[in-house]
Amino acid sequence: MKVLVPVKRVVDFNVKVRVKSDHTGVDIANVKMAMNPFDEIAMEEAVRLKEKGSAAEVIALSCGVTQCQETLRTALAIGADRGVLVHTDADLQPLAVAKLIAALVRREEPALVILGKQAIDDDANQTGQMLAAILDWPQATNANQVEVADGHVQVRREVDGGLETVRLTLPAVITVDLRLNEPRYVTLPNIMKAKKKPVATLSPEDLGVDVAPRLKTLQVTEPPARQAGITVPDVAALVDKLKNEAKVA
Ligand code: AMP
Description:
The protein is of the alpha/beta class. Helices cover 27% and strands 27% of the residues. A hairpin with a 2-residue loop joins strand 7 and strand 8 (152-159).
C-alpha cells in the first residue's frame, strides 16, 4: 500500500516569533524555517510502516513556496521514496490544503494519509479532519499508536483523561500526536541519498483546486507580557502571601 504524508514548512520551533508592526501577521522574513514537528512524527511512522513491510511506498507532499522543496528533502532523508511539491505563493488555509491533498489522493490512491495533528504556526488543527470529510474516509486524530493489518488500521488516540482505541477500514486518514514515536536523526548519508530521489512539481491548477482564502485575518497581537515574579525569604512569608494576597483558601 502507498502512504501519503503531507509535510508543512513552518517557522522553526526554537524561533521566538515577532508580530509585524502593522499587526497583519507574524514576521517570517529571515527567520529559520523547518518541517512542522508533528509532520516529522507522521513521516517517521510512515517510514516505520514501510520498514515493517506494511507499506510499499511513502510519498511526501508539501504545498507552498519553492523553499518547501527543502522540507521535502528532509522528508526524503527520513525515508520517503519520492516527493510532490504543489507550488504556489498563495496564502494557503487549511481548507485549500485539504482540497489539494484530496486531489493528489485521487491521483495516487494511497491507502493511508498520515498528517500532523496541527501545524505549529497557525495551530489550526483542521487539515486532517477536512481531508477526511472531503474524501468521505474514516479518520483517527491524535494517534499515539498505529498498527496496520488486513485492510484495517488500529489507532490508539490521546483523548481528554485517557486513551481510546479505534479500528478503521482502509483507506483512512490519521493525524499524529507527540508521543507516537521519536523521529530518527537525519544522517548525512541519508541527506546525500535524498538528493537523488525524485520530486515532482504541480500547481493548484494542475490539480483543479481553487486555493483562494476563505478567511480574513483581522488582527494579530502579542500575548500580554507576564508580570515579573518575586522572591520570598522563607516558607512562612510564602504561606502569608498565599493566604493574604493570593487569597488561597
Ligand atoms: P493544520 O490543520 O494547519 O494545523 O495542519 C495539520 C496538518 O496538515 C499538518 O501537520 C500537515 O501534515 C498538513 N498541512 C497543513 N498545511 C500544509 C501544507 N501547506 N503542506 C503540506 N501539508 C500541510
